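Re: your question about DNA polymerase III subunit alpha

S., sorry for the slow reply, the queue was backed up all week. Below is exactly what I fed in.
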Amino acid sequence: MTDSGNFVQLHNHTHYSLLDGASKIPDLVKRVKELGMPAVGITDHGNMHGAYELWRNAVDQGIKPIIGIEAYVTPETARQDKTRVSWDTSWVPQPHHERNPDDVSGGGLITHLTLWAENDEGLVNLIKASSVANLEGRVMRYPRMDKEVLQRYHKGVICSSGCPSGIIQTRLRLGQFDEALRAAGEMQDIFGKDSFYIELMDHGLEIEKRVTKDLLTIAKKLNAPLLATNDSHYVHEADRDAQDAMLCINSGSRLDDPDRFKFDGSGYYIKSAQEMRDLFKELPEACDNTLAIADRCNVIFDDHEDGAFMPRFDCPEGWDETSLFLKHVDEGLKRRYDGNPPIEVLKQADYECGVICQMQFCGYFLVVADYINWAKSHGVMVGPGRGSAAGSMVAYAMGITELDPLKHGLIFERFLNPERVSLPDIDVDFDPDGRMKVLDYVANKYGHDKVAQCVIYGTIKTKQALKDSARIMGYEFSVGERITKALPPSKNGKDASLHDIFDPTSKRYAEAREFRELYDADPDAKRITEEAKGIEGLIRQTGVHACATIMGSEPITDTSPLLERTDGTITTTFEYHTCETLGLVKMDFLGLSNLTVIRDTLTNIRNNGKAPIDYTKIPLDDKPTYELLARGDTLGVFQLDSDGMRALLKTLKPDNFNDISALIALYRPGPMDMDSHNNYAKRKNGLQKITPIHPEVAEPLKEVLDETYGLIVYQEQVQSAARILAGYSLGKADVLRRAMGKKKPEVLAKEKVPFFQGMKEHGYSMEAAQAVWDILVPFSGYAFNKAHSAAYGLISYWTAYLKTHYPVEFMAALLQNERTNKDKTALYLGEARRMGIKVLPPDVNESRLEYSAVGDVVRFGLGAIRNVGDKAVADIIAERETGRGKFVNFMDFVRRVPVTALNRRLVESLIKAGAFDSIDPNRRALYEIHETAIESVIGLKRKQAEGQFDLFADDDDGGADTMGDALVVVPDIEEWDKKTKLNFEREMLGLYVSDHPLSGMTAILANLREMSIAHLIDRAKTMGDGQQVTIAGLVTNVDRRVSKKGNPWAIVTVEDMESSIQCMFFGKVYEAAAAQLAIDEVVQVRGQVEVRDETVSLRATEMQVPSLDAEDARPVVITLPQVALDREHVMQLGHVLMNHPGYCPVKLAIIGEKGDAQVLTFGDRFRVKRDTSLFAEIKILFGPSCLPAA
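Result:
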């Protein structure tokens, strides 16, 4: 690399310099290669997040990677010292006295220093130094090293004096040459004479030019080599605007703000060697030294075999991991099978143990089983299994899973394949509260230095890029909203990128016509989009992975840097796939709220005086549970509570556990696109013929396909088919399944030959082989993991069983776990009422912190009341249960509860929520005197604390007399009206509980709408933007507005018995409805669903104020024999109905030849107004008998 005409860009900031750098690493490496440079460096601000990605990309492109960091270093203070330092001797800290811009950076907190790893020891040292800075030296957003850290981790590290924010340059700008020389000498002493460089930059900045001469002098005095760098923050010169936009996003400013932070000077891109040598033509050696450093730097990230640093299990003396593993399996089998495991179980376990021991994964199983069993023994709910691990008999024996794999037909090779060695992946569900306890246990057991959660990097997605661009360019929020609404709807949670939108070869291109039309027609939209293209995909922030935790046998900082977040969570800075590549082990600890529901239900059962149950021993053939499933009464049941799933349950009518497992596998986009879910239901109920794949394979595949009525539902069925028909081992069959699932032509062609040959050798024709191949290939991409389906099906069954047999306890648990979600709470309150369960409002004498089951009713928890904290609730409960018993009246409550639970807002909230109704039912009267009562009691309690009462008074009498002085009489005044009471109740609880303004109108509302508002909100994400739907409810707020163009419009809040939604009225729709938009008006609104940032709204297209006469709201039922229905008559009926628009639904009862009736409901656009002219026209069409007598 000694080509004197070349140059190496060593000082480069990627987008891992969060909201500062705008270089994506693949683009950076590609550009360096285009420029013919032999190497490339990475020096992100204060972190090494992108080190491995840079290394991997560079190596793959034949470019030498130089791994570094632009470190934040304390201004000669200890890293724990948060003092802001000034080196400007003339500056005096005073209000409004601004610091000298030449002074220490970061408001006196940081200087900069550039470091590169020369060898593998240096790489580890940089990782460790970076981790110490993040874990011990962070102040605000600056992870800081100090001199002690630099001295500790200097070996194998090359250092330069850094950018203008470096300690040496700062001293020089302040005229402190001797201090600058001293600092440079110290760095040279730490890193060595040959490993400390004086770094020179030239971006046309005055602060660079002012110190260049002195830097050269220092270099000469210390005989320190010079180093020319370019402070690269983006790849191409044209990317400057994107980087400038990132700075605005970072600072919350606009591009036109003259005072915002921005880069002065120019040239912060990847310059060519010629550009750099022209810039430093007077100092060619400074450019040559970039090549010299590149020559010296040789680092390797070792891509180890899977699990090279697997955590070691601490075995008792005399045992190793293998022997202890086999002992636990043997004991577990005896425990699972009452001391007498069947021979087929022993055979399967013996086979699995052989595979696991051969792969040297015994320690892995011991570690996982240990933390799962610890969790179970410490009150943490653990799921019955997740993913393919549920197919393992060993996992079942060790308590890792709760399903007998042989009983459920699960396959071990889907989990661990002896013919494709890879680390086992056992994902475990815990209740969310318990998950953190388990993580703490694991960290304490294996070492906090060997366990960390995993980072994720949040990039700027399409919608956010457009909104950010609109904001920084000075547009109003509504402009960004308007542009993003033109984006195509997301697919499976993924937005179409701007590249997809404008690339005709993209699969998403056709969906984005509306956006492109807006782009072409609207200059503002075009400007914003062009700005957004530059920032889309750049990293915006770090986060914590939802479940991935990294473990190792050695300190993680031997391999990955660590980062401490503001909440104290420690994460790796390499993403989990990189950590696994480097030999660390990923364990997935997932939080599943439904496990909390099960736990709380079990607690409610005990607290409600019922016999405790063991949920793991619930029988899987409980008839009442399957009857509940067949009715579709599964709101709140795990995985089975969506509208679509409930409708499918009614059609399917499941009567065994296999049906539940199959439903979970089939109710997904792939199988549903092929109508597999409906075909399964039809075949189960004899409505569709079961046809074999090919006559020759009908009998051989009977054992595989019988349980799914001839359909390929599970991945394991593909494996079994290959084993039976082509003689594959299950391991080899899993390799085939994976190849089929990927659908790569070259891979399929390679696998097809041995499969066809295997079937031929087993006596099947080529026609049969082709028929099987043609079925297996497409279905392999959609087939689901049966082990996962069965495991999650078990949770579904448990929750369905609890809802069936313990409905009050289950609904209380469900409400408690959704207490922060107003829409879900409303939905489940409605479900409780439908089930005939009374839900009582909160009560200071009866309620606990959480929702509770009391007899056959559910009681609101005090913790659900706004402004009422957990500590105050604990004090209230403690006083009534361990003090003098239940409160007699309001004043008794005020006198007895601790001062901590006696503040105005809290007591006011209890009053408004109705929590005193059982002892003092006049809420208005309590509201009028609560402040006076509180003040009088607090004053007396304060005097009591100061000892101003008779110390020798009788405890009982004295206490009563003392507090008796605080008696405030509750006035005898008229109570608030019903509306006021309910509004206050809703304000405190988020919804109506004791009553509802729409009480008694349930049937009318049901006939006016397609679905309740709660169901709409629940389904909105799957419905997609733009779908038309009709709702009905009470207008609770009207916000009338005027647009910039002077057009009136309104945001109208409509509420039904369960939830509320905002409806937007624009243009002619607003004009037509304006006069009827009034609070407390019952309305029927039809509109388009809109989902923006998790918020569901309705863009109104029509509104009516219906008659509230229950008779008028009845559906119109037309009864016809099947023979009377032909296309012409149906079309005529449609015209008749549409000529009488209204709000009554229309049903068609079709009578078959045998007298059986099938009832169909017409779509919402065919709702009608009941009147004699409508009935007359229908009778003319079909005869008088088609309608019931008036």
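Residues 949-961 have pLDDT under 50 and may be disordered. The radius of gyration is 36 Å.

Happy to talk it through on Thursday.
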